[in-house]
Amino acid sequence: MRDRSEPQDRWLGIRLLFISFLFYFAMMVSYIFIPLFARDLGASNLELGLVGAAYGISYFACSLIFGRQADIHGRVKFIGLGLALGSAAFFGQCLANGPVSLMLIRAGVGGCLGICLAALMAYVYEMAGRVGRFVSFGSLGLLCGCIVTAFVHSYHDLFLVSALAFGVAFVLALTLREHRPWRQALPPVTGAVFVRNWGVYIPFLLRHLSAHSIWIIFPLFIKGLGGSKTWISILFAINFGGQFLAMQFMERFNAFGLFRVGLLLSALVCLAYTLAGSHIYLIPIQALLAVAWSCAYVGALVLLLRRNAERATAAGILFSAQSLAMGIGPFLGGAVSQLWGFHPVMYLACGLTTVGLALSQMARFVGRGGA
Predict the structure, then answer these.
(1) Residue of 141, 210, 154 lying closest to 36 (CA atoms)
(2) Is the pLDDT reported for residue 326 higher than 90?
(3) Domains within the chain, CATH numbers bracketed
(4) Dist CA 150 CA 234 (whole Å)
(5) What tens digit of pLDDT does each residue of 26-55 get?
(6) Distance between CA 17 and CA 214 in Å, rounded?
(7) Which of 128, 196, 284, 356: CA 20 to 30 A from 301?
(8) Among 338, 276, 358, 286, residue whose Cα is nearest residue 44
(9) DSSP secondary structure, 59-105, as one string
């Protein structure tokens, strides 16, 4: 049975949706042109991978550490801390003057996101319940972030917008209250939670590793197919707009079935990228990607939050897997593309996601990680 109280007032759900929107809006406004910004600062493909790796590894470590702490000490303090520090870190991107300084600042940004996201997801589940709707507003934030980047091409202006959005989210977070007293004496269960749910975590890691090996070179890939900065933003927006629509309906389906469908469609998307002869042909592929990610992400979240009492820990491990992929994937994508070009990255991504799908099915047969 869910450990979830009713919202203390009718505006709590609205505040949480706005925080979700602003969180992902800020993240996308800064993220989408980081590869081009790094290139303008003189970064090679390999250095571009290192910039992405620093962000992801920092995100990984903080998600793992602070997700556990949120189960012990409460959710709200970590939500506020991450948002406050994140606003400063986004502003700090304006100070980057080379690949090394950009790598260090992006590591700070990733760490701040990791501090608050697992706590925020657990708080939403316990106070409002509808995880699918919450993450759909995150996708709406990503969509609006793409729209902003289609019209604002100044890197520093975009970084300032991100800092402002996180600042507003922090102010909203100050109105949140814990729904029960905290300071729980929980056993060291992080390893046990991972073992209990490896059939979700490892396939999710492989799927996200594949995605981020592509995303780090994707703006350059689009540019090579004839797309402008505006088209880069449009293609990202198609993905995120589709996610916002699809995620509204995902929770009504079997969570493990959703997860596996998401993995299968993700593998097909990776393969389809290699067939595109122009940036125009990426439009339907991005729409399919929206459905793929919605299935995989909502399916994984609902599975973990329903079946684990240690919700912030379970979500924190998922976000750690996601952020570990953000660290390794860009390095992998940058290195492979440096040696062999863009298409081999996409073939590799398809193969890794297919392995993840096979592992998720195997986990169900052996009785771990299944529905």
Answers:
(1) 154
(2) no
(3) 13-178+190-366 (1.20.1250.20)
(4) 7
(5) 998 988 888 889 989 988 877 887 888 888
(6) 29
(7) 284
(8) 338
(9) HHHHHHHHHHHHHHH-SHHHHHHHHHHHHHHHHHGGG--SHHHHHHH
